[in-house]
Design a protein that fits this description.
mainly alpha
Length: 209
Amino acid sequence: MGGTTILAFAFVAFIGIATPGPTVLLALTNGSRHGIRRALAGMAGAVLSDFVLIGAVALGLGALLAASEFWFTVVKWLGAAYLAFLGVTLLRSKGTLDVSLDKDAPAVTTSAIFLKSFLVAATNPKGYLFFSAFLPQFIDLGLPQAPQYAALAVVFASVDLVVMLGYALLGSQAARFLKHSGAIWLERICGGALLALAGSLAFYRRAAT
C-alpha cells in the first residue's frame, strides 16, 4: 500500500466524515454542552467504534449483514431506536449548554459521553456496509491484508478525530455567544437532525444481492 493510496483514502474519508452525521452531531453538542475536554471522551468512543467497525469488516461481518436480511434488520432497528432516543432527549433539553454551570442538571459522566458516541456508530449498519464496499478498493490482494486494514483503520480514525474536534470546537465557541434561547434552538436543531437520521436509517434497505 503506497503513500498515494493512503492520501486518496484519507481524502475520501474526510469528505464522508465531514458530511454531518450522528457522530459529528454528537461532537458538536458535546462541545457546546460540556466543553472540549469532556467532549474528548465522546470522540474517543467514536474512534474506538471506527476500529471495531473496520475490524468487523475485515473479519467478514459487513458481508454477513449484506447477505442476511435478519441480522441487517436487527442492527438497523437497534441503531434507529438509539438515534431516535438521543434526538428526543435533545428536543426535550432545556438548553443547558454546560451542565457544570447548572446546579439542577444531572451530572453526566465522561464514561456516559464515551458510551453514547460509541453506540451511535457501532449500531449503525450503514457503517458496516459502507466499509465493506469502501475499504477493499484500497486493499492490495497481493499483500497481507491484516496490516493494510490496520493502516486504513488508523488513518480513518485520525481523520475522524480531527473532524470531530473541529465540530466540538464549533459547538464550544457557539456556547460562548449564544443566549439561553439560542442554546435551546441549537440543541433542538441537532435533536431534529438525529431524528431525521433515525428515520432515514429505519427506511434504509439492503442492496439486492
